[in-house]
Amino acid sequence: MTPSVQPSRTAFDQAPETARGRVTYRALLATHAHIRRDLETVQQLAARAADGLAPSQLRQQLHALKRGSILWQLQVGCLRYCSFVHLHHHVEDVEFFAELRATNPALGSVLDRLQAEHRRVSQDLDAVEAAANSLQREETEDARRAVVEALRALERNLFAHLHYEELSVEATVRRMRDWSERT
Predict the structure, then answer these.
(1) What is residue 1's three-state secondary structure?
(2) Could you report the per-residue pLDDT of 123-140, keeping only the tens digit for each?
(3) Is 70 exposed, middle or buried (0-12, 13-18, 19+ CB in 10 A)?
(4) Residue 7 domain flag
């Protein structure tokens, strides 16, 4: 009988969860819960736009969503480098993702995908704004359909991104160095 060969465990596999990691992951989930709430608003807005919501009302609701929701605050204007989004992405891309890469080097391709998805969601947000602006200028069936399609694409891509992120980074986030271990 040949003894079974156990794969060697990495330092990551052996690392325990940390208090900081658990708190950070809970904060990530709380942020995503707010974003999902806003996605429900986006879905409802898409349905109302498809049903004939007046362009001025659609535009007003988009502005209200933009001002008051985490979804828009975190993502809108990424490509235009709005100050909040620039700061958020800088921290996430340079510090948070760098720390996750250091904690678990095997996560590199996941983090690369998440960064690419951030850019995709930002493009979706830009498309929603552009479509809403077009509808405001000229209310046509094509313009209305473009708003609905842009809102649905945003919902689809962002929801998939959140789901993937939560599943992919949980173990690593939970093992981030604790506060006392940071230099």
Answers:
(1) coil
(2) 887 787 788 778 767 778
(3) middle
(4) no
